Structures
1.
Amino acid sequence: MAYPFQLGFQDATSPIMEELLSFHDHALMIVFLISSLVLYIISLMLTTSLTHTSTMDAQEVETIWTILPAIILILIALPSLRILYMMDEINNPSVTIKTMGHQWYWSYEYTDYEDLTFDSYMIPTQELAPGQLRLLEVDNRVVLPTELTVRVLISSEDVLHSWAVPSLGLKTDAIPGRLNQTTLLSTRPGLFYGQCSEICGSNHSFMPIVLEMVPLKYFEKWSSSML
C-alpha cells in the first residue's frame, strides 16, 4: 500500500501492473528527453544573438521536426496498445467473483459456490484494533487465491462507483444496469487496499476495498468455513 509522502506508484503485485510501471517509465523518459531538448534550445536562443538564416529556412530541418514527433508518438502508442489488449484479455479464470457497489459499501458473491455472499463495510475509527488502518479496514475482506486468474464482475445497484486496487493495476467502473468485467492475478500473498474511485455521494470516502491474497490451500479452507 501507499506510505506517507510517496511520490511514485505502489509496488506491483500483478503482471499487468508491472507492465504499466514499465510503460510509465518508458513514457516519462521520452518526456524528460523532449523537455531537456526544448529547454536547451530556448536557453540557447536567449543567450546568443547569432542566427544562421540558411539553417532556419532549410527544408531538411522542417522534415526532421515533422518526422521525429511522429516516430516518438509511435514509440509511445505501440506499447500502450499492447498493454490495453493484455488488460482486456480473459484467460480461463479459475475463480469468478461478482462485486456490487452500494451507497456506501460493497457486496461480494463467489459465483462458483452456493450461498457464499457477504457485505463489506468500512470499520469506524472508534472500533479499529491496534495496527489497523483508518478509513481502509473493512469487516469482511475479499479472500482470493494467489497465482490463479480471477475474474471480477462489477456492477452497481444505485449510482456510479469504481472498483480500484492500485497495486494490482485495477480500476473498473461499477455502472447500474451494466456488468463490467476485469481479471486479476496476484503473484504474491498479502493484503492489498483500494477505494471507490468515482464520486458517489457524501460517504464516497468511506468505501474501502481489502483483498487478502492467500495460497490456494488456505483459500479452500476459508471457502469451506464460509459455507
2.
Amino acid sequence: MAQHPIRARMCGFGEKDRRPIDPPPVVKLRVLDERGQFMSSEDVDTCKFVVSATLWAPNMENDRSIVINPNTLPGPMPMYPSSSSSVMSLTEPVKVRNLVGTTVSGAYMLKDEQDEHNIFFIFHDLSVRTEGRFRLKFQFTIIPSQEQPRAFIESIVWSDTFEVYSAKSFPGMTDSTELSKAFAKQGIKITIRKSGRGRTFQQDDEGGEQEDDDA
C-alpha cells in the first residue's frame, strides 16, 4: 500500500450522493526479475496489469462487498446476507454492492511525492453505502492473452482498517496528502483539499483546478 484509506462518509442507498473514501487508496507495484532483483518501473510492460478492490470486515474473514438494501426489507433482518438468513415476504430483498464506484484500476506510471517513477493503481472513486469499520482487499492480476489464456491472482495486499461514518458523525475530510497532490499535478482526476480554506478542488482535463463542493 502506497496510501491507506482513513475515513469516509457513508453514501447510503441512493445513486447520486457519492462520498469518496479519503484519502484515495493507492497500491504500488514492485516487480522482481529472474535474479530476484527489483526491476526499474520504466522497464516493465504494464499494459495488461489490473488491480481489483473488494470490501471486507476488519478481521479479513468476512466479505462486506454485498449488502441488503434496507428499503426492500419487510421487517428486521441482518443487513449482510448469509446462508442462514430467512424472512417471510412476497418480494425478495434486494442485494446491492456495498462498495460502489470504480473497483478496478489499470496501471499508472507516475512520479510520487519524492519525484520517483513508480507503478501505481489508484482508487479515487470508491464509496461505501453503510457505516462501520472495514478493510479493502486488493488483488493483482494480469489480463489473459493467447499466450496465457487464464488469469491468476498474482498478489494480494490489504489496507489498514478505516471508518465509515454517518452524515451526522462524519468528522470531515482529511488534508490532501503529498502523494495525492503529486498525482493531481500529473493529470490524475483526484480531489485536492487545500488546508485552511475549507474548499476542495479537482483537476480538470487541462491540468487546471475546478472548485468542488463535496467536502
3.
Amino acid sequence: MMDNRFATALVIACVLSLISTIYMAASIGTDFWYEYHTLSPAENVSEAGRSIWEEFVSKDADEKTYTDALFRCNGTVGLWRRCITVPKNSHWYSPPETDMTTNCISFSLSDQFVEKYVEPGNHNSGTDLNRTYLWRLQFLLPFVSIGLMCFGALIGLCACACRSLYPAIATGVLHFLAGLCTLGLVGCYVAGIELLHRKLPLPEDVKGEFGWSFCLACVSAPLQFMAAALFIWAARTNRKEFTLLKAYRVA
C-alpha cells in the first residue's frame, strides 16, 4: 500500500507538470517574447513610410528590414511570428490617423533555419555562427521540452497501470531533462536578443523589454525541476522503504 506522503508528492508533481506544460505551450504559441515600445508609432508611419507593412511581409524581407519595422512600429516577436502596429487605413491619399491595428506574419520553417549574417541584411558579410545556432536552438528546444514531458506522462500512466512507483524515476529524469531544455531555450533567446541589439542598436526613442510569453517559459523551467525532484524522491524513497519492509518480513 502506498504511503500518504508519496501519494501527496505524486499528486503535487503531476499538478506542477501540468501547469508547466500549459505555460510552455502558451509561451510557444504567443507572440510576446520580446516587445518594442515606440513613443509615437503613428508619427513613425509617415507618408515616407507607408510601405512599411509591404516590406515587413515581403518574402525578400531580411533580418534588418523587419527588425527596423519592429523598432518603428511597436513590434512584438515570438518564436513563430512577428507583429507590428500600423494604421488601419494606410492608403497614400489618407490623412495621418491614430487608429492603429496589429498585424502579424509567421516565420516559415525555412526562416527558422536561415543563416544569420555578421551584418544583418548584408549577405556578403559572412555567417554569424553564434546567432545562427542560437536561433535554431530556440526553435527546437521548446518542442524537445514538451516532448520529454509528454513521454514522461506516458511512463507515469504505465506506472499507474502496473501499480508501481518505480517507473516514476524515469518520469522524474525526463522532467529534469525537459527543465534543462527550457532553461537552455531561455538562455539562447536572451543571448540571441543581446547579440542582435549589438548589431542593430535600439533607436533613442525605442525601448525594448522581454514580454509575458518569455516570462511563462522562465516560470515553466523551475516547475519542471520541482516536479522532477518530487517524482524521483517519491519513487526512490518508496522503493527503499519497500525493500526494508521486505527484508524485515523475511527476517
4.
Amino acid sequence: MSLSSVQSTLSTLKSCQADIGACMDMISDVALGIVEAQGMNNSPSLKKLEEMIMECSRLDREINCFVESVDEKTAQVRNEPPEAMVHLRNSVKDRFSELMAGVSDADLQRHSKVVAFKDSIRKYAMQGQTDAENEEEELDEDIAVTQSQTNFICPLTQVEMVNPVKNKKCSHYYDQAAVLEMIKAKHKNKKNFRCPKVGCDNRDVQQSDLELDLVMKRMIQNHKRQSGKT
C-alpha cells in the first residue's frame, strides 16, 4: 500500500459523500411530497424515509471517521521507515473502530441534513395547515411566508429560482448554481462575495453559509404548476 493509493481512495470516498448528501436531499423532497398529499398523521412512509435518512447519516459519519483515521495514521508513518507502511492498514482499522465506538444516535440526529429533514417536514405541514385554513394571522417568520408574499426571484439571475438556498447568516435566498458560481469566481480573484440583496450588510458569503431549502423549492414548484409554467 502506497500513500498515493491511500489518497486516491480518500478522494473517491469524498465523492461518495457528495452522492450521499444528494440522496438525503432527495429523501427530504419525497417526504415533503408525502406531507403535501397525505399530511403527517404518523405516516409509515415518513417513518421509513426517516430510517433511510438516518442510515445515510451513519454512512456519512463512517466516511468522516475513516478519513480522520487515515489522515491521522498516514501523518504518523510519513516520516517513518518504509516498513512502517506494513502496519498502516491495521492501525487505521483500529483507530476507525475507536472513533465509530464514540458515535451515538444523538450524533447522527445532529447531522445537518437530518435536522433539515425534520424541520422541512414540520414547516411544510404548518404551511399546509395555514393555506388550508386561509388564516391571515402573523405566524413565525420562517414558516408563515405564503406564496403570494414570497419572492421567488434570485437576486443574482433575476429569474425564478430552481434550487433555492438560504443564507444562514442573513436569511436571504439565491439560486444554488448562480451563487456557487459567483462565490467561486470571487474567491479565484481573492475577493469576498457580498450578499447581493439590496441593503444587506453581509459582506462575506461563504458556501458553508448556504443550505438548500426544500420547502421553498416545493413552493416554487407549486407556484409554477398553478400559474401554468413549465
